[in-house]
Amino acid sequence: MKKIGYILILSLLSLHVMAQKESADVRSGNKLYKSNKFTEAEIEYRKGLQKNPKSFEANYNLGNALFKQGKYADALEQYNNALALEPSEKAKIAAAYHNTGNALLSDKKIEESITAYKNALKNSPKDDDTRYNLAYAQEMLKQQQQNKDKNKDKDKDKDKDKKKDEQQKQEPKQDKQDKQKEQQKQPQMSKENAQQILDALMQDEKKTQDKAKKQPVRGKKKVDKDW
Q1: What does DSSP assign to residue 103?
Q2: Structural contact between residues 134 and 113, judged by C-beta atoms closer than 8 angstroms
Q3: pTM
Q4: Are 11 and 98 in contact (CB under 8 A)?
Q5: pLDDT tens-place string over residues 116-168
Q6: Which residues have CB under 8 Å from 7's CB, separation 6+?
């Protein structure tokens, strides 16, 4: 896979010819950039902008120097400044949109980077580097969406397990509460009540025995056998 940085160097070099009309500061910045001295190049480009704020090359190349330092938000601002100047050359517009896409993609703003790459291709349909970066950004967006869907499914499973655990914890408590309610509904018998019932039963049994004793004993009737 190509690296985004490699594409940026090509974009910068393509503007060197146009930059010949620029100030000595911009030309100096270009030399420093080629030597990978991006902080020093940034300083020179800013000097050039002080002399000519409407310089497309100074804004654009400053954006590249900032990008190389990992200052993606600052780089994006410079590319936007360059595009705001409304250059007539399609090559300039395409290069600015291309590097705008790079800055957005590096800042994890994938959907916005895709829009920028598409704008670059409108102005330079045969640019293979932009086409590659567009395909790369679209693949990143696809993977990001898939990861979101997986995380949603995991969260749903966690919620289901959590609800299940909560229900299982609540069920025994409910059973205990139901048993306690049933016990409360059942009439409670004290020791005194139990003794009174037992005494009453014993008295009834004694009366029955006394009554049986008072009754006369009847003789047995002899049954004659027929011979």
Answers
A1: H
A2: no
A3: 0.63
A4: yes
A5: 999 999 999 999 989 999 999 999 999 999 998 888 777 777 777 777 777 77
A6: 98, 102, 129, 132, 133
What are φ and ψ of residue 103, in 5° steps? -65, -40
Half-sphere exposure of 189 (CA within 13 A, CB side): 7
Task: Tell me the two tokens of residue 186.
Answer: 């059942």
Q: Which residues of the chain have pLDDT under 70?
A: 1-21, 169-191, 194, 197-198, 204-205, 208, 211-227
List domains and CATH numbers for the chain: 4-143 (1.25.40.10)
Share of the chain residues as helix, strand and coil, in percent rounded to the nearest 5: 80, 0, 20
Give the tokens for residue 72.
Answer: 């993606």
- Name the 3-class secondary structure at 106: helix
Residue at token pair 């790079």: 102
What is the C-alpha to C-alpha distance for residues 70 and 169, in angstroms, rounded to an integer?
53
pLDDT for 163: 76
CB 137 within 8 A of CB 114: yes
